[in-house]
């Protein structure tokens, strides 16, 4: 799969401890059972009193918070913490239907798949997606696997509606449209505003060079039409477009670098 666009933010939590030499063999997905964002959920996990954490929180706006270093245990799945990396979909619920998952977390699912594959490679375990009814082994699964297969605890997230086929398609790189969000979806509000402002400026330049209806200036506009641009107009606009292109290139580079 290609790397989806997302913005990674560090929100380290004290709720972690060493792996004690255990080898990481599984990546587990979780729901929040609340209405948070990646950042607000990370804020909660940063509170020592919460006594819970995940390595990552992800939301559908394309934000990823790094909460616990993957070399350490997060506090997510009881005695399975030492062998696992854990990711929580912020704002999600285990009661969601398939359609709710696709509508509300489609982008987050793609990002989670990417992060899971990167960690499977980094820690040397299979990218096998272990969906219900589950088969014991290394790979990517969810909290209910811990309950049903490992016999620890009682949590049932990510729930029956989770689109495992779509998630596995991202993991295996077989989905038809790997990046439904597109370029602009990757930008935050400020970045979108920058592009919009630049576009409006260029548009303003063109309009300010047009004469009022019914007037003409044969000297400045020898072709007679107010909408016809002269060489100076052209050079000015080309300069503005070049500046805009440089801004977009810089933003694209920043996004690719995961900033
Ligand atoms: Zn869970």
Mind explaining what this structure looks like?
By secondary structure, this protein is α/β, with parallel strands linked by helices. It has 2 domains: 7-180, Lysozyme-like, CATH 3.40.80; 187-256. The protein is built from 7 helices and 8 strands. The strands form 2 sheets. A 6-stranded mixed sheet has the order 1-5-4-7-3-8. Strands 2-6 form a two-stranded antiparallel sheet. A hairpin with a 4-residue loop joins β4 (56-58) and β5. α2 runs parallel beside α4 (164-172) and α6 (189-208) packs antiparallel against α7. The longest helix has 26 residues, at 98-123. Residues 221-227 have low confidence and may be disordered. Zinc ion binds at residues 30, 143, 155, 157.
Question: Shape from CA axes?
Answer: elongated
Distance between the ends = 20 Å
CATH topology of the largest domain: Lysozyme-like
- Cα radius of gyration in angstroms: 25 Å
Give the rounded overall mean pLDDT. Answer: 87
CATH level-four homologous superfamily name of the largest domain:
Peptidoglycan recognition protein-like
Derived from helix and strand composition plus strand pairing, the structural class reads alpha/beta
């Amino acid at each position: 799969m290609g790397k989806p666009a997302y913005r990674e933010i560090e929100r380290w939590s004290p709720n972690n401890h060493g792996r004690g030499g255990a080898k990481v063999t599984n990546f587990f997905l979780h729901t929040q059972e609340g209405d948070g964002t990646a950042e607000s959920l990370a804020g909660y996990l940063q509170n020592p009193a919460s006594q819970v954490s995940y390595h990552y929180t992800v939301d559908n706006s394309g934000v990823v918070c790094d909460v616990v270093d993957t070399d350490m245990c997060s506090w997510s799945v009881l005695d399975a913490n030492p062998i696992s990396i854990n990711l929580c979909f912020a704002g999600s619920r285990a009661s969601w239907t398939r359609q709710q998952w696709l509508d509300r977390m489609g982008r987050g699912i793609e990002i989670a798949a990417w992060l899971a594959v990167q960690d499977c490679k980094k820690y040397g375990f299979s990218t096998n997606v272990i969906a219900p009814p589950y088969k014991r082994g290394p790979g990517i699964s969810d909290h209910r696997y811990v309950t049903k297969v490992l016999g620890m605890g009682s949590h049932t997230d990510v729930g029956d509606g989770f689109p495992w086929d779509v998630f596995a398609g991202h993991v295996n790189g077989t989905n038809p449209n790997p990046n439904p969000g597109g370029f602009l979806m990757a930008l935050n509000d400020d970045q979108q505003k920058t592009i919009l402002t630049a576009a409006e400026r260029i548009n303003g330049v063109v309009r300010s060079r047009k004469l009022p209806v019914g007037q003409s200036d044969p000297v400045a506009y020898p072709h007679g039409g107010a909408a016809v641009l002269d060489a100076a107009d052209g050079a000015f606009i080309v300069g503005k477009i070049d500046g805009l292109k440089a801004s977009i290139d810089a933003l694209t580079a920043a996004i690719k670098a995961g900033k």
